[in-house]
Specification:
The complex is a heterodimer.
Chain A lengths: L8 E6 H12 L3 E4 L6 H10 L6 E4 L3 H13 L4 E5 L1 H16 L4 E9 L5 E5 L4 H6 L9 E2 L4 H18 L2 E7 H5 L1 E6 L43 E3 L13 H16 L2 H4 L2 E4 L6 E5 L3 H14 L4 E6 L1 E3 L3 H8 L4 E6 L5 H9 L4 E6 L8 H12 L1
Parallel strand pairs in A: 2-3, 2-4, 4-5, 5-8, 7-8, 12-13, 12-15, 15-16
Antiparallel strand pairs in A: 1-9, 5-6, 7-14, 11-13
Chain B lengths: L12 H5 L30 H14 L7 E5 L14 E4 L5 H11 L4 E7 H7 L1 H10 L4 E6 L2 E2 L5 E2 L23 H8 L3 E6 L3 H12 L5 E6 L3 H5 L7 H11 E3 L16 E8 L5 H9 L7
Parallel strand pairs in B: 1-2, 1-3, 3-4, 4-8, 7-8, 9-10
Antiparallel strand pairs in B: 5-6, 7-10
Classes of the chains: A alpha/beta, B alpha/beta.
Chain lengths: ~375, ~300
């Protein structure tokens, strides 16, 4: 790719802009969005860069339309993305469901601010974690990635595109206002060193192609518009041919596959960063901007000889259930600092049950934990 | 750990692939319909068959290959039209066919992208998308089937239901004023605006084929009978009675100001082509800025 999409070199940029550059490096050639703080910089960057790299940028009338437009573009063969924050994320839920049901690859960036409703538009939040998991009605599997630095906004946006193509569904970047707006050094590698996963295409002839028949990994190859396969795509419950079929047996096969293609591939998708875990009695679990304060608090505690470990969720969904169950047997306390009233903590409780003490250090939004906030709790439980 | 019991009924691929039923292919236009999808779900006397056929005839008239055409629909009776056509078809969410089509059309400009949906879908829940797509002049051909009510859900009032008309949710008569769809589409910036009824099958084919050749946002309203949902409470008889009414009450006024295009089943139904103008499309403008001065990037 030498169309100027990959800005190889060293940069000093904010997380939103790095996210846009990551998308371009992943091959994104369609962006539809609607202005919203604190995600607007993603759209602004795309509006500047896409026309000059052969892609399409369009500002839609709302987030419902933005999500619909990227699904349409994806069926036209595009790598498509939109970006938003809480209120827009709520509006996108309807067509996220369509994207899940029709297995449409695309990337949705949510730069989380504090809610509910309009909340604190310019200030940080992390309270959309459960919305990302369960926001649209019905059952489906979810992949959500939570970058913690400007470099990760770039790297993990590429990863999000790759996962969306691999598993054929919308993938979420669940970032936050702090990471979106912070400026850091960003290193963009040469284009040929960027790993890109491309859409799996049908190898069969149109008359043999079964458009919604999952392969071994439960993901069906995808035929896009104008490729001669004449596929019918519907948000209704459909059989493997793609045709509406209003029977519980078809619903059973379809929805199980939609959930299972993530559930059964979870080990391949999940990315965790764990440190100081060998002898840890207390483990701090964090993600996004809070993980930066958490890391400093854990390092300080270690330097004072406290047996504290750190687990950073790079993928928030699918949740590392297996890992947490395993840890719950030997870790006495999980400390979960997050900018909400206990969303990841709720998952940790689900996994650990009564086998470990679970301490949520919640902030309702608007600010990040200082390392001291987290250190004080560590000290209390690790003594 | 939750134990999940696996499903018991596998999908029989062979049976479905060989579903090219014996009856498919008898009619020369069957090639435009997906094998095994007929019979359709529409009621006897519904106007949707006429509209679907008009779309197919217009494709033939313009010799647009099926693999260069795509139909996108929303939710409702008309929303099901896409699923019968033997091409790439997308049955989206309620009201969102137009923004979906916008994405597809922009990324695949060589495709003829048509939105085929109903009045409730396009003007109630999808109203905002329609006016903005018209304003942007994206290259999307909209065919709006207006049957004055929500048929799929059993005949509720719509933004097109005439004043005082009875529906299942206006049992004492409708107190809301209806939209004039052609006027709204024209005011929003559509480059081609026409209205026909299911009775005007040939005019409709001509109109759709004109729209195919017109770059930008085109809008065609088709008035259709809904014998089950709308006709019954309003004592309008069967589908055929409605077709007779269309014949009696319709007046063709090409070039009329769409604000003046009256639609009153009791008085007169003004049909015809109201708008046909040239204006740069979104894609035209976008192409210019793609190739514009790189220093301004």
């Amino acid at each position: 790719m030498n169309n100027g999409a990959v800005l190889t070199g060293e940069h000093f940029l904010n997380g939103d802009v790095a996210c846009a550059e990551g998308a371009l490096a992943a091959g994104c050639n369609f962006f539809a969005g609607y202005p919203i703080t604190p995600a607007t910089e993603v759209a602004e960057r795309m509006s500047r860069r896409l026309p000059k790299t052969g892609g399409i940028y369009i500002q839609m009338e709302d987030e419902i339309a933005s999500m619909a437009a990227i699904l349409g573009a994806s069926w036209g063969g595009a790598k498509a993305m939109t970006s938003t924050s809480g209120p827009g994320f709520s509006l996108m839920m309807e067509n996220i469901g369509l994207g899940m049901m029709t297995e449409t690859p695309c990337v949705l960036v949510n730069i989380m601010r504090a809610g509910p409703s309009t909340g604190l538009p310019t200030l940080v939040g992390q309270a959309d974690v459960m919305q990302a998991r369960w926001g649209s009605h019905g059952d489906y599997g979810v992949i959500a990635i939570s970058p913690a630095s400007v470099q990760e906004m770039f790297d993990l946006t590429i990863e999000a595109f790759n996962l969306s193509e691999q598993y054929r569904q919308p993938v979420f970047i669940l970032s936050d206002e702090v990471v979106g707006h912070m400026y850091e050094k960003l290193v963009i590698p040469p284009a040929e060193r960027i790993h890109r996963i491309e859409r799996r295409k049908p190898e069969k002839r149109p008359d043999e192609y079964v458009p919604f028949m999952g392969e071994e990994d439960l993901v069906p190859p995808m035929a896009c518009a104008g490729e001669g396969y004449r596929v019918h795509v519907t948000g209704l419950t459909h059989d493997e041919m793609g045709y509406p079929h209003m029977f519980h047996t078809t619903q059973e096969r379809l929805v199980r596959r939609l959930v299972d293609k993530i559930r059964l591939n979870a080990d391949k998708i999940i990315r965790l960063e764990s440190d100081f875990m060998e002898d840890a009695k207390v483990v701090v679990i964090a993600y996004g901007c809070v993980s930066r304060s958490a890391r400093e608090a854990v390092e300080r505690a270690r330097s004072k000889g406290l047996k504290v470990g750190m687990l950073r969720l790079i993928t928030v969904w699918p949740f590392p259930t297996k890992k947490l169950r395993e840890l719950a047997g030997r870790v006495e306390t999980f400390i979960i600092p997050e900018i909400n009233y206990g969303q990841v903590a709720y998952e940790v409780e689900r996994c650990a049950g009564d086998r470990a003490e679970i301490v949520q250090v919640g902030i309702m939004g608007g600010t990040v934990h200082s390392p001291e906030d987290i250190y004080d709790v560590i000290e209390e439980f690790a003594q | 750990m939750i134990r999940r019991v696996p499903p018991t009924e596998p999908f029989e691929v062979e049976r479905h692939l060989s579903k090219n039923e014996a009856l498919h292919g008898i009619h020369p236009d069957d090639t435009y319909l997906k094998p095994g999808r007929i019979p359709h779900i529409w009621c006897p006397g519904c106007g949707l068959g006429v509209v679907l056929n008009a779309y197919i005839q217009a494709l033939k008239a313009r010799e647009i290959p099926q693999d260069r055409a795509s139909v996108i629909s929303g939710i409702g009776c008309t929303g099901r039209a896409a699923g019968y056509l033997n091409m790439d078809t997308y049955h989206t969410t309620h009201g969102r066919a137009i923004p979906f089509a916008t994405g597809l059309s922009l990324i695949r400009p060589e495709l003829s992208v048509t939105v085929l949906s109903g009045d409730g879908d396009l003007f109630a829940i999808g109203g905002n998308h329609l006016i903005h797509a018209a304003r942007r002049n994206v290259n999307v051909k909209v065919i709006c089937v207006n049957n004055f009510n929500y048929g799929m859900t059993g005949g509720q009032s719509a933004p097109t239901t005439p004043l005082e008309a009875r529906t299942s949710t206006t049992p004492y008569g409708n107190v809301e004023h209806p939209f004039n769809l052609v006027s709204l589409a024209a005011a929003s910036g559509a480059v081609y605006v026409a209205r026909w009824t299911a009775f005007h099958a040939r005019f409709l084919v001509e109109s759709i084929s004109e729209a195919f050749m017109k770059p930008g946002f085109t809008f065609i309203e088709v008035i259709t009978p809904c014998p089950t949902g709308y006709n019954r409470p309003n004592k309008l008889g069967a589908g055929l009675d409605m077709m007779k009414l269309f014949r009696e009450k319709s007046e063709i006024h090409h070039g009329l100001d769409p604000n003046e295009a009256e639609l009153d089943l009791k008085r007169r139904i003004v049909v015809g082509k109201f708008v046909d103008l040239e204006k740069p499309t979104f894609a035209d403008g976008y192409e210019k800025l793609m190739n514009g001065d790189p220093k301004r990037a």
